[in-house]
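Lab notebook, bench 4. The sequencing result for the construct came back, and we need a structural model before the next group meeting so we can plan mutations. Quick request posted to the team channel:

Model the 3D structure of this chain.
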Amino acid sequence: MANQPVLKGVHHSARPTWKLRETVEFYRDKLGLPLVHAISARGWGPSNHPDFLHFFFDSGQHSTIAFFYYINTEQPDYTQPVADYRYEATHTAWRVDSREELLAWRERLESQGIALIFQIRHELIESIYFNDPNGYYLEITIQERPMDALDAEDATRTLEAAMALEDGLQAGDDAFTSIDQVWRAKARAIDPGADDELALYVLDAPEFSPLVQAAQQASGVHLEKLGNGYWKITTEDALVFERKQLGFVPALWNAALTGGFVGQVSEFDRYRLQISRGEQ
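Done. Here's the predicted structure in token form:
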């Protein structure tokens, strides 16, 4: 599109706090993020809007993290932190440039008495997670490799498959109950002319290469490199993968089928994955 406007990154994210001192001392003193700006105002437009403070901490690369402190107000129940994946989905992730920096941040958190929730490697990032005094989820991450055109194309195939399933759900035509439905639909989009009853598609990316290597070493397994950025793995019987053999961390193991597949997942636990013929 001509004259397409372009964003230049995140200026700030903002959330409410009812713990003014704890929030300031956490971000400024414990994390070491400079306090760079504050707004104080008598209300804001609507007559029922309370007086407030709005303050900003520098989080690098011209970005800030900001908070609202509403004076003389009670914290609503719906803003209270809860141990639930839906609450934790809303979070802030900061980027560092090396694993050494990531480990240095972990050391700083521990030295400041900030509890680490966990450190985990995802598909192409490795992160540490922790909470601020408000219970907000925070992440510091290193990206292992750049995202490229292949990643974007794969993301499009994934989301197109999922959106079609959601459309069917909203129209009352079908149920959308599992990620396997997305992966099967994605497989059909990747390889539309195929008539295989059992196939696994693997994105040609470093993090998924152990699947390809395992297929190369397995007997009775056929491996084909497609021209669209995927490997295709087929066999007459069943495809079996052992997590220990692949060396996958849990996040990668749970995403092992993200390239799409044809067949049914007849076994999947912490240690073993089997794809068989047929469809559940």
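The chain is about 30% helix and 30% strand.
Will bring this to the meeting.
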